[in-house]
Amino acid sequence: MQKTAITSAEIAPVLANRWSPRAYDVNHTASQHELLSILEAGRWAPSANNAQPWRFSIATRGSELFDQIVGAFTGFNQSWAPNASALLVISVLNQKADGTPYPGALLDAGLAAQNMMIQTEELGLAAHPIGGMVHDEMRKVLDLADNLDPIMAMTIGKRADASVLEGPAYEREVAPRVRLELDEIVLHGKP
Ligand SMILES: Cc1cc2nc3c(=O)[nH]c(=O)nc-3n(C[C@H](O)[C@H](O)[C@H](O)COP(=O)(O)O)c2cc1C
């Protein structure tokens, strides 16, 4: 299914065509090369002072870690995420080397996340970001050190027809993509 963004000026096709599916082909397997490519895209994201406060965990369908990560998702996400070919969890450093708070790490990690989602799309696959998780549970599953917090996951896989879904997941799959108008979000200087 195509859900190309309707824009008032052209944007890069990979941006216009990216969208977050919940219907995945359960017969697809992500190759090691595809997963490496996605991780490299995250690695090369920009970050303040080039501090790179992100850490990535990746698991493929069929592995114990994959099932454990699904188990740390909230209920709705557990209903559709298991069909993805791989799951990626992003954790961030929660303090700087000098022990002071590190709120900027979240912004940096968001840039890495978007890099990885765009790379996934470029590979002909599709990613879906997931914030709905039980953080303490995810922390245990990933055996994270105290200075790391899990903040976001994403599914990676091959799109399937919406008919593989049912209930709320199906409804959301076929719903049109919507955004605020530019007039609502550009405070100054809109052309
Ligand atoms: C940080 C973040 C967390 C999200 N968490 C969830 C989630 O837990 N479950 C879910 O189904 N979608 C989740 N989404 C997906 C959004 O609902 C989706 O990106 C948004 O509706 C726009 O749709 P699009 O990505 O198809 O353009 C999340 C997206 C982001 C960026």
UniProtKB/TrEMBL annotation:
A GO molecular function held by the record: oxidoreductase activity
Transmembrane portions of the chain: none
- Keyword Oxidoreductase on this protein? yes
Residue span(s) of domain Nitroreductase: 16-64, 75-158
- Which key words are in the record? Oxidoreductase
Give yes or no: UniProt keyword Transmembrane helix. no
Among the Pfam families in the record, one is: Nitroreductase
Query: What family does the entry list?
Result: Belongs to the nitroreductase family.
The molecule here is called: Unannotated protein
Q: Which organism is it from?
A: freshwater metagenome
Q: What is the lineage of its organism?
A: unclassified sequences, metagenomes, ecological metagenomes
